[in-house]
Amino acid sequence: MTTLAGRTILMSGGSRGIGLAIAVRAARDGANVALVAKTDRPDPRLAGTIHTAAGAIREAGGNALPIVGDIRDDATIADAVERTVAEFGGIDVVVNNASVLNLSPTADLDPKRYDLMQDVNVRGTFMLTRGAIPHLLASPDPKVLTLSPPINLDPRWFAGHPAYTMAKYGMTMAALGFAHELGQKGVSSTCLWPATLVATDAIGNLPGGDQMVAVSRKPDIVADAAYAVLTTDGQELNGQTLIDEDLLRERGVTDFAAYSMTGRDEGLAPDIFLS
């Protein structure tokens, strides 16, 4: 498969950052993109809303269906699946993009924040994919793409923020479960993670975020890698936990400077969970 033209993507999140970049890249082919996100109105801490994201998708050449809702809510998921199928005739791809970032150590983490990470990251990934299964099985080349890291049991990733590590690894475990369970039925499930920090609001809003953004890459690199995954035929990438830079190098990309916030492919900060 060399294009996403006419393919329908159901994505959690996507109002901004990596999710929006993936959606816009798919839209350039003429894809249909349904976004499930909470940001209905502008927030001074965040760039854009689900409505501005839908506008960017349409401007890029795709069709957009903005669905305002909370991925933690089962009724929202059921409604999103139903509306996507009614609007576009089916679902070919699920992108599990929505994620909550909280790097607090155990003693400092409010129980509600723990629940939020588990509910959005792990449960949201599981339930959105679950809801789409009947329609994925009817697609000629169904894909599930989850934005989560390879599972790295190095103690350093548990020492500082075990709750966040559990939540992100839970997403990966769900995706690997889909790969082995649904792979037998033709669904290809793949994880994707950036080699370096990516300049998003989640990073920029952390303490010292400005300095972190300066040593980050643009969301475009993850979008291009996601596009490579979603246009790979069949189950070649099923069950894999991929790193964006590695995949793009395998596909022939040699110049990564354009992805850097500074235009120089040096001095970048590696993302967490990577050795």
Percentage of residues in helical conformation: 40-55%
In CATH terms, what is the fold-level topology?
Rossmann fold
**Corresponding CATH superfamily:** NAD(P)-binding Rossmann-like Domain
Could you list the spans in which at least 5 consecutive residues all have pLDDT below 50? none
Per DSSP E runs of 2 or more residues, the count of β-strands stands at 7
* DSSP strand content: 5-15%
What does this structure look like?
The chain is α/β, with parallel strands linked by helices. It has a single domain (8-259), classed as NAD(P)-binding Rossmann-like Domain (Rossmann fold). Helix content is 41%, strand content 12%. It contains ten helices and seven strands. It has helices spanning 17-27, 50-59, 74-88, 111-136, 156-159, 162-181, 201-204, 209-214, 220-230, 244-250; strands at 8-12, 32-37, 63-68, 93-96, 143-146, 188-193, 241-243. Strands 3-2-1-4-5-6-7 form a seven-stranded parallel sheet, sandwiched between helices. Strand 1, helix 1 and strand 2 form a beta-alpha-beta unit. The longest helix is centred in the middle third of the chain and has 26 residues, at 111-136. The chain is globular, with a radius of gyration of 17 Å.
